[in-house]
Each structure stands twice: as structure tokens, then as C-alpha cells.
Amino acid sequence: MVDHRQYQTFADSVMQDEDNQDIPLETIRSRYQDVIRRHAELTERLSRDSDKMIFERLQKEFEAARASQTEEISLEGEDWNDGLLATIREKVHMEADKKVMEEDPIFVDDSPFFSKITYKVGNKVICCLEGARIGIQYETSFAGEPCEIYHCVLESKSFLEKMTVLEHTIPFFLPIREAENDLLSSNAMKFIDHVGELLQAYVDRREQVRIIKELYGNQIGELSKLTVGLRYADLVSVLPTRIRVLAWPLYSSKELAGSTQTSRKPSGTFPSHLIPARLSYAEDALRTMSLPEVWIATTVTVKEVRLGAMVVFDVNYEDDDGGGGGGY
Questions:
Q1: Residues 165 and 152 sit within 8 Å (Cβ to Cβ)
Q2: 3-class SS at 230?
Q3: Which of 300, 328, 294, 143 is nearest to 219 (CA)?
Q4: Rounded to an integer, what distance in angstroms lies between the CA atom of residue 20 and that of residue 23?
Q5: Whole-angstrom Cα distance, residue 305 to residue 225?
Q6: Could you tell me if 2 and 42 are in contact, meaning their C-beta atoms sit under 8 angstroms apart?
Q7: For 162, what's the count of Cα atoms within 13 Å in the CB-facing half-sphere?
Q8: How far is C-alpha 296 from the chain's CA centre?
Q9: Disulfide check for 251: which of 91, 175, 255, 293 has CB 3.0–4.6 Å away?
């Protein structure tokens, strides 16, 4: 629930100043911007809480569905196909009709079609949820260790109508709606697989950055200040499509201020000794190797530079039109 007291505080302060009829415009603007900033923080916090509640509710629903199953079938290769998905779609609508049929005293539930089956396909668990819905649970991992679980729930009004994404717990910066528009109505199986690939690739990229920071944090202090900019046009890829690695000279604030005052060029540009060096060998390595592998392979070379003490990772995703979002 939003705490409206901060807005009341702002209003009260403005009203008190209005009595003096002498409010500087900058003061009002500063207070207004502060309220906007707090509102954005509250909105983000509420969004996170909402996502958490959705995850907890769906997780309980998936656990209940798997607990009530009569069989779990693992599928490999061609066993996972459009025909099976059509069967699952038909089953969820039949189970919805079954709820109505159970009210009939002569109804006997002995049909094998009503057996509750859960399907496991790679890192995906597919099950039938109440209300004619299909639930997909994505179990991500890294280096053989389990990571986060994500959910996606599909529904359709009838077996013959197209499916839509009802709700999900997929990170907002991954293009779930674009995938829904492009794939779900024409190839639902491809949509389900594509979302799984998006999630696993995202976790792989994120964990690479985490490992660099956790395992090599002490070494970073011996090296230069590096800015590693990675752009991913293909979000199902672990390797970036655009790379920029820069090594910055490190000076104290006094040294930097003195250097820029005495050696700034007439054009306003900085002298060459303040311009970062581009590490092309690291950029080339990042095109074929993971971040931890690149770090190990290039550490010796970077140590020879010995300019400073920090590595900054700038990781962003972009679509074919050049838009971007997300990061670490």
C-alpha cells in the first residue's frame, strides 16, 4: 500500500510557504522533483512485491498440480511435438468440462484421458492447470547448479481458439510479448521452447558476470579501471554481438583536476594520456569465449597495463531495431 504521507508533507510545505507569498520557483521545482523521485521508487517497490506475490501463488499452484499427478513423462527429441501439445490443450478443456460433469451423480471418472499427467521436456515442466490453462515451469541452471524458476501460463477460450499468455514471472526486459505476437498463435510449441531459451541464455550471461565479480574481485584491484560494454542483439545467445572494452587511466581527484586544468587542449578535448585505451584483444576473445574464460586468458596482458582499480560491466540487450533494456 502506498504511503501518501510524503505527498501530504509536500502539500503542507507548499501551503505554508504560500502564506508568505514568497516561494522561489527553484524551491517548488526541487520539491516537485523529489516527490516524483519518491513516487518512482514506490512504484518500483510495489512492482517487485507484486511480482513476488504472483511467483508465490503460481509456485503453489504448480506444486499442487504436480502433487496430484498420476504420472510424469519425460520427453526427448521428437516426442515433444505439435501433436502432443494439441493433446494437452484438449485435455485442459476436457478437465474444465469434467468439473461440470462431476455434478451429475451418474458420472463415473474411469476414462484414462482424465488421468493427470505432467510432461518434462528439458528444463521445462508442462502441466494442466484448473480453468483450461496450460502451465509451463522453466527451471534454469548454470554449470549444473539450479538457479531460478520461472512460470508462464497459457489459456484459450476453446480448443479451437488461439492461446494467449495469461500471466508469467519472466523478467520484464525479456521480449515475452513480442514472442507471443510472433509465435504463439502460429507455433505454440516453438513459443514455449523460445521462452525457455531466452531465460536460460539470460541466466548464463548474468551468472558469468557474477562469477567474475566473486572469484576475481581481489585481482581487479591490481588492474586498470575497465569498462566492458556488451550488447546482445540475439537474446538466446550467450555471446554478445557488439563489444567494447576500454582501460581508463586512474588518477586521484586532485591529480585529475590539475591535469585537466593545465593540459586541456584549446578545442576542449582531453590530452591523450587521459583517453582510455581500447583493448582489442579482449574484445576479440569475448566474441568466442565466456566472460570467466576471457578474464583468465587476458589477465596477464591486462596486468602489464597496471593503471588503476575497478572493472565496470555495462551489459544491455537490444532488438533488431536497436532498442535495448535490462542489464547488470
A1: yes
A2: strand
A3: 300
A4: 8
A5: 10
A6: yes
A7: 12
A8: 27
A9: 255
CA distance 42 to 222: 39
Q: How far is CA 258 from CA 56, 225, 253, in A?
A: 56, 20, 9
Dihedral sign of CA atoms 291, 292, 297, 301 in order: positive
List, for residues 225-255, the tens digit of each pLDDT value.
Answer: 777 888 888 888 888 888 988 877 655 445 5
Contact present, 118 and 61 (Cβ < 8 Å): no
Q: Write the DSSP assignment of 233-272 as a string of letters.
A: SSTT-SS-SEEEEEEE----HHHHHHHHHHH--TTSPPPG
Q: Which three cell numbers stand for residue 164?
A: 494467449
Judged against a pLDDT cut of 60, whether residue 218 lies above it is answered with yes
3-class SS at 186? coil
For residue 195, what is the enclosing H or E element?
helix 188-215
pLDDT (tens digit per residue) in 294-327: 877 766 455 444 433 344 555 555 544 444 445 4
Size of the chain, expressed as the number of residues it contains: 328
pLDDT over threshold 80, residue 2: no
Q: Which three cell numbers stand for residue 12?
A: 503542507
At 224, list the grid cell. Answer: 586498470
Report the alpha-carbon distance of residue 133 to residue 164 in Å, rounded.
10
Show Cβ contacts of residue 265 under 8 Å, excluding neighbours closer than 6 positions: 271
| Cβ neighbour number for residue 319 with a 10 Å cutoff | 14
Extract the C-alpha cell encoding 31.
520539491
Q: Is the Cα torsion angle 206, 212, 214, 220 positive or negative in sign?
A: negative
Scanning the structure block, which residue is given the C-alpha cell 513480442?
178
